[in-house]
């Protein structure tokens, strides 16, 4: 128990408390679809629809302040047709060292708020040279290289169709040029060495990043249908001879904003 009368002694109870506070602060009793916006995706948010409310993550139990340049610690409630979208404008990353429960707390809060579907987006490095910076790629499967799970206890969650084939098919109806790839989550915060990128390729990865897999697992545990979309903002280390630079990552996102906005704006009403 914390100082109020709200039980927060498990991650699930903490998420329930956050969802209740979210409903109070936004005036929206239930949300339907959650989105987590990763690096480069923030400018796309306005294409989703009209903001009903915007709150600071830190106003909800269990959230901590955003730590990365280009990440905004806000949650927006957006009206889209008949549905309420819950949009996280930033995420907590594994490399922040706050633990896996903190990383997946937004996902569990979204589930507790009523969301049956979650769209996880990220910025990442690409192993396929055809994916120039600014190319969106659907995540078809992942390699969780963190060595961790967000699940505690003997709950053997099936991840066979973790990245919903139904939702991926829907995406391709919206944009038939979309490719798919396997996303490998490295712990970060440093980028990979060229040897690590080659290793990831041998293991079957097409994309390398520092997020998403732990969140997807927690979303599946919570019974949500998961869609993952990566924005390739750079070629992974050693794929090109260019050094990697966080500022360039932000600029690639800015340049791709219109396409990403278009994609999400057309996609979300159909998921
Ligand atoms: I944006 O090349 C972005 N995030 N691990 N590697 C990893 N994370 C990333 C990269 C990258 N680019």
TrEMBL record:
It comes from the Bacteria. Residues 33-268 form the Nucleoside phosphorylase domain. PROSITE patterns: PNP_MTAP_2. Signal peptide: none annotated. CDD domains: PNP-EcPNPII_like (cd09009). It is an enzyme of class 2 (transferase). Pfam families: PNP_UDP_1 (PF01048). Its EC number is 2.4.2.1. Pathway: Purine metabolism; purine nucleoside salvage. One of its GO terms (molecular function) is purine-nucleoside phosphorylase activity. It catalyses: a purine 2'-deoxy-D-ribonucleoside + phosphate = a purine nucleobase + 2-deoxy-alpha-D-ribose 1-phosphate. Keywords: Glycosyltransferase, Transferase. The keyword Transferase applies. Homotrimer. Belongs to the PNP/MTAP phosphorylase family. The purine nucleoside phosphorylases catalyze the phosphorolytic breakdown of the N-glycosidic bond in the beta-(deoxy)ribonucleoside molecules, with the formation of the corresponding free purine bases and pentose-1-phosphate. Cleaves guanosine, inosine, 2'-deoxyguanosine and 2'-deoxyinosine. PANTHER family: METHYLTHIOADENOSINE/PURINE NUCLEOSIDE PHOSPHORYLASE (PTHR11904), PURINE NUCLEOSIDE PHOSPHORYLASE-RELATED (PTHR11904:SF9). This is Purine nucleoside phosphorylase. It comes from Nocardioides cremeus.
């Amino acid at each position: 128990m914390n100082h109020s009368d709200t039980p927060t002694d498990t991650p699930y109870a903490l998420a329930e408390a956050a969802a209740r506070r979210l409903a109070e602060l936004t005036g929206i009793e239930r949300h339907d679809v959650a989105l987590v916006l990763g690096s480069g995706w923030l400018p796309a948010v306005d294409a989703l629809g009209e903001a009903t409310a915007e709150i600071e993550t830190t106003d909800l139990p269990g959230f901590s302040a955003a730590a990365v340049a280009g990440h905004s610690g806000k949650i927006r409630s957006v009206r889209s047709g008949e549905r309420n979208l819950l949009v996280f404008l930033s995420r907590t990353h594994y490399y922040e060292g706050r633990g896996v429960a903190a990383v997946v707390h937004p996902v569990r809060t979204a589930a507790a708020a009523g969301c049956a579907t979650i769209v996880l987006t990220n910025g990442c490095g690409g192993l396929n040279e055809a994916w120039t910076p600014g190319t969106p790629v659907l995540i078809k499967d992942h390699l969780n290289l963190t060595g961790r799970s967000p699940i505690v206890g003997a709950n053997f969650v099936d991840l066979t169709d973790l990245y919903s084939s139904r939702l991926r098919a829907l995406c391709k109806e919206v944009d038939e040029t979309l490719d798919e790839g396997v996303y490998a989550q490295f712990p970060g915060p440093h980028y990979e060495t060229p040897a690590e990128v080659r290793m990831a390729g041998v293991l079957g990865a097409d994309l390398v990043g520092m997020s998403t897999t732990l969140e997807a697992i927690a979303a599946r545990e919570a019974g949500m249908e998961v869609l993952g979309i990566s924005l390739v903002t750079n070629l992974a280390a050693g794929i090109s001879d260019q050094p990697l630079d966080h500022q360039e990552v932000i600029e690639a996102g800015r340049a791709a904003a219109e396409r990403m906005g278009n994609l999400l704006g057309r996609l979300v009403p159909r998921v």
